[in-house]
Design brief:
Helices cover about 35% and strands about 30% of the residues. It has about 160 residues and is α+β, with helices and mostly antiparallel strands.
């Protein structure tokens, strides 16, 4: 397994990883409409734009992309950052890959410069992020209007 920075030629395959993960892993917690909207919002074109705004990483098993994650400044802040687009193919979940993605993101310059890091956590992944040391923002443990939990970690 290798974790490396996202490259433009990774966009289509990474978008496919996200789509499959949403359809398989998140479908128990979200409606079909919600899943489809999220697939659209993680198209190859959008991933390329997101990668320009921060640092995106992919996890490869040989030449196959099996996971991804990104970090960027939170609304342009230099003291706050946000973790985004963290996905692992369903058949690779539970093998420590998500933890390796978080560890990689937490070594990135966007993390190291931040005093606070936020994650918009899906219902599906909230407990994983809590195990990684993130807690409910302002103690609010209910999903917001976007159907995600807002988690944060302070450094």
């Amino acid at each position: 397994m290798e974790i490396r920075r996202f490259q433009l030629e990774d966009a289509i395959e990474t978008s496919g990883v996200i789509a499959k993960t949403l359809k398989v892993s998140n479908s128990k917690d979200y409606s079909k409409e919600y899943i489809e909207a999220n697939i659209v919002s993680h198209s190859a074109e959008i991933l390329i734009e997101r990668a320009k705004e921060g640092h995106m990483y992919v996890v490869c098993d040989d030449s196959q992309i099996i996971g991804c994650g990104a970090i960027a400044g939170y609304w342009g802040s230099t003291t706050e950052s946000i973790l985004l687009t963290i996905f692992v193919l369903p058949e690779y979940q539970g093998k420590g890959i998500g933890s390796k993605i978080i560890e990689t993101l937490e070594q990135d310059e966007y993390f190291l410069r931040a005093k606070r890091i936020e994650i918009p956590a899906s219902i599906t992944a909230v407990e994983f992020y809590r195990k990684m040391g993130y807690d409910y923002k302002n103690g609010v443990d209910i999903v917001d209007d976007e159907q995600v939990y807002r988690l944060e970690k302070f450094r």
